């Protein structure tokens, strides 16, 4: 199973390293539909941008932040089965801020792996905060690792203030920067597996089933989007970093500032499906 997963990830990575068409070729072939999102970038298999909409504008990344949180946690962890406890203060802090939660309870003993799934699948702030503490000792020190990685990846428009993506005027990025991060992250087999998982059951007492915030918004749609990370704050709008597949070819599509909210129609997902149909 692990060999198969590694092979899948290597195939995706190889696609994104192989250039075969120019931007002009794609512009002639792809008619991008009108998007709900105000910011967008589409990368082809080589990592070349084939469509952009306000790609360099400064945006609030919301829970797309958790892509960085997860990949840094993976790279900094030497044991994904290491156990830690969910603190009552963590639950109280993020419940008070109405943040999205994975569903852990105070006192739960969980693994780093559980927390990684909790960060990406249901987009839990309880998971990201606990990851920061167990890996770096504090959110502040973990955020420093995130900003170091952003610098390493050439994310020049990006500055992280927290690990969850809750709004802060200084917590900023651009969809071009997020596409650099996302492309880097999916080449990691552990991250890729988590990103493309529809649901996950932890081993905490009583077991906790987590469902993907992306796939639950795609009822009846199969195959178009292989995986992705959603996000939302009122300031960021609906956001999505998605991995698309069409006719054996792979694309990365990152959008922010779509109209709507978490209770409205999933306009960010509609944008991704519309672009997939146009490919």
CATH class: Alpha Beta
Distance between the termini: 31 Å
Order of strands across the main sheet? 2-1-9-8-7
Order of helices and strands: HHEEHEHEHHHHHEEEEEH
Mean pLDDT value = 91
Q: Tell me, what's the shape?
A: globular
Tell me the number of strands: 9
Rg, alpha carbons: 18 Å
Strand-residue proportion: 15-25%
Q: Looking at this structure, what is the CATH superfamily?
A: DD-peptidase/beta-lactamase superfamily
Low-confidence stretches: 14-28
User: What structural class is derived from the secondary structure elements?
Assistant: alpha+beta
CATH architecture: 3-Layer(aba) Sandwich
Count of separate structural domains: 1
Q: Provide the CATH topology.
A: Beta-lactamase
Question: For the report, how would you describe the main beta sheet?
Answer: 5 strands, antiparallel
> What assembly state would you assign to the polypeptide chains in this entry?
single chain
User: How many separate helices?
Assistant: 10
Helix content: 25-40%
Can you lay out the helices and strands and say which pair or pack?
Elements (H helix, E strand, L loop, with lengths): L1 H16 L5 H7 L7 E7 L5 E5 L11 H12 L6 E3 L2 H9 L12 E3 H9 L4 H12 L2 H14 L22 H11 L3 H7 L3 E3 L7 E3 L13 E9 L3 E10 L2 E10 L8 H12 L1
Antiparallel strand pairs: 1-2, 1-9, 3-4, 5-6, 7-8, 8-9
Helix pairs in contact: 3-6, 5-6, 6-7
Protein name: Penicillin-binding protein
Pfam family, one: Peptidase_S11
Family: Belongs to the peptidase S11 family.
């Amino acid at each position: 199973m692990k060999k198969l997963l590694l092979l899948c990830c290597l195939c995706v990575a190889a696609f994104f390293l192989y250039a075969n068409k120019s931007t002009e070729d794609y512009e002639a072939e792809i008619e991008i539909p009108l998007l709900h999102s105000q910011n967008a970038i589409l990368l082809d298999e080589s990592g070349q941008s084939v469509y952009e909409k306000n790609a360099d504008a400064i945006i609030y990344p919301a829970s797309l932040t958790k892509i960085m949180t997860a990949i840094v946690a993976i790279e900094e962890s030497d044991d994904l089965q290491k156990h830690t406890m969910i603190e009552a203060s963590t639950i109280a802090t993020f419940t008070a801020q109405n943040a999205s939660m994975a569903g852990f309870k105070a006192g739960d003993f969980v693994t780093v792996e559980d927390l990684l799934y909790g960060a990406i699948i249901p987009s839990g702030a309880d998971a990201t905060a606990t990851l920061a503490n167990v890996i770096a000792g504090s959110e502040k020190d973990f955020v420093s690792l995130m900003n170091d990685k952003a610098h390493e990846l050439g994310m020049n428009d990006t500055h992280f203030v927290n690990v969850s993506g809750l709004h802060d005027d200084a917590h900023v990025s651009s969809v071009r920067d997020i596409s650099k991060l996302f492309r880097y992250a999916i080449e990691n087999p552990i991250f890729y597996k988590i990103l493309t998982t529809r649901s996950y059951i932890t081993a905490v007492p009583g077991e906790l089933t987590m469902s993907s915030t992306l796939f639950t918004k795609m009822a009846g749609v199969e195959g178009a989007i292989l995986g992705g990370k959603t996000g939302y704050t009122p300031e960021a709008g609906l956001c999505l970093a998605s991995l698309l597949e069409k006719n054996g070819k792979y694309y990365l599509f990152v959008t922010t500032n779509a109209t709507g909210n978490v209770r409205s129609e999933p306009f960010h997902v509609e944008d991704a499906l519309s672009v997939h149909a146009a490919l």
